[in-house]
Amino acid sequence: MPELPEVETTCRGISPHLIGQTITAVRIFHPRLRWPIPDEVHTLVGRTIRSITRRAKYLLMDCETGHLIVHLGMSGSLRIVAPDAPRGKHDHVEIQVGAQVLRLRDPRRFGAVLWTEQPPHTHPLLAHLGVEPLDAAFDGASLYAQTRKVNTPIKLFVMDAKRVVGVGNIYASESLFLAGIDPRTRAGKLSAARCERLAKAIKSVLRAAISAGGSSLRDFVGSDGASGYFQLNYRAYDRAGAPCRTCGQLIRRIVMGQRSTFFCSKCQTR
DNA sequence: CTTTAAACCTGGTCGC
DNA sequence: TGCGACCAGGTTTAAA
Fold it and tell me: Exposed e or buried b for every residue in A174-199, given b needs 16+ CB within 10 A?
């Protein structure tokens, strides 16, 4: 369940241990994640990690001769461990940098490890991504402009990575609750004022989760191996049948785009 | 073009 | 205790 905050937290967590370090070994224990892990990752040995950045939910590692692209899928996590740390059955890849190892664990194997020698943002998976929600370029005005004449329900709109990246199922429900907007509202029907509220809500929800250290992964473990688990106090998500924390109305669960959607029919309007 | 749904995978939970 | 059914999550791909 890593959403943007978890990926950002992971990026910040592993960076200090890896930047400027030289890769001494790459080991693949399970070569098939969402896609097969390309053989070229073995050419990483001897390369130095220049930087680690995030784009949407992708982690990008600049390794001099190319870029490692890592996606955590729905159950992936990265940690720094000692080389002799016992390996679990879902630890699929490890990259050794001297006395430390970066290990990818991903029980459901929806994640990905890819390699490109081109600028990573031109990679087919990244080339058509929308705006970063925490960028200044994403605000009420841009959201208003973007949603004009769009019939898609607003919840599906904000979850569409071609429009805005990083807003997954959990934070979509949370943001719409905070903004007081019914998730079924047609995007194009939102007023400028409501777009403003929504953009602010998305930023605020994501920022809160980042500062909490990542929240949406039930078994989230900090990249240092400590129990970084933190459950946000959700206002709507996963609260079907429970009273709204604002008005007491029972939170409803509906399905939109095959995903559970939670909202308060009293606080959130069309 | 847009919209919808299936697929990928595993572990946890529920009802019987 | 076992077993089947179903759900969660993000994203791509195929189909309508």
Answer: bbbbbbbbbbbbebeebeeebbbbbb
